[in-house]
Amino acid sequence: MRIQLTKKTIVLIGLALVAGIFAALSAQQYIQNRIQEIEDKAKVSTVPRIVAAYDLPVGTKIESAHVAVREIPSDWVVSGSLKPEEFIHIEGQVITVALKRGDPLLWANTATVSKRPFSERIHLGRRAVTMPVDSINSVSGMLVPGDLIDLYVSFEYRQRQITAPLLQGVLVMATGQQSRQSEAGEAQSFSTVTLDAAPEDAAKLVAARQAGVITALLRNPNDDKASQKAIRGDLATILGLATPPPVIKKKPAIVYGDQQQRRLPALAINKEAEEGGATVQRGVIDVPHQEDIVSAWINSLPQPTPEQLQVIE
């Protein structure tokens, strides 16, 4: 049985197909628009911000290893939070508020280190000893940070006065609270002097202050020679003004041949005028075991660059 399609029928079928295709496309476009609309409503706008990579306590010096970059929803961004490109402005500063991991880093949570602690200027193996000015008052008015001084101690030993070098070439680290020379060059009043010393030298200085009188002598910074000279005796003896003891005259000893051999009396020798065949100054002695100046180790250190000096200041 053959069905004959008329021209009208073919036209209707064609229109139906076109309508169906249009309807399918319209439905697909509608579905895609709804999906995009739903996705746009669900999508949250984020911005990159700097956060703490670890738990950071107060005082932490900020470095790149301490922070991370996280995407934070725009609606949740805290005022004062830092963008990644702003990290260069806070690197090297310290944290003023303890942060937990993931907490955003804020401008208000950082502070510039205005002054480095004085302890950072003390080299490893060295100590800073602060002495009252009245203990070393001989040059206190002329001292400035960076000077070198010799410390002499005067004390009594076996009923004789002795003045001997205690420490030589001691570096003055600070006068009062002034740790660098005044730019104006004006004299600064101070009541204490802070000195650089090895631990054993610091112990000597404390002991000498308790048992004797310390006197400071200003040293030329280019003088690297240590002196071994000390003074023994009271001032009159040192100046040669002491009255010599009376001479006791003794009868000459007579030795007879028929008696046992006897020792002749010892000859009197002026020990202060002759020692080892060489004439020495009255009262001046050499102190044994005197080492180099205590600040000689500074010469072996590398010289700081101008940038490092500016940071220290």
UniProtKB/TrEMBL annotation:
Q: Outline the extent of the SAF domain.
A: 47-111
Q: Which InterPro entries match?
A: Pilus_assmbl_Flp-typ_CpaB, RcpC_dom, SAF
Which is an annotated Pfam family here?
RcpC
Q: Fetch the SMART domains from UniProt.
A: SAF (SM00858)
- What name does the UniProt record give this protein? Flp pilus assembly protein CpaB
Q: Which organism is the protein's source?
A: Pelistega suis
Gene behind the chain? cpaB
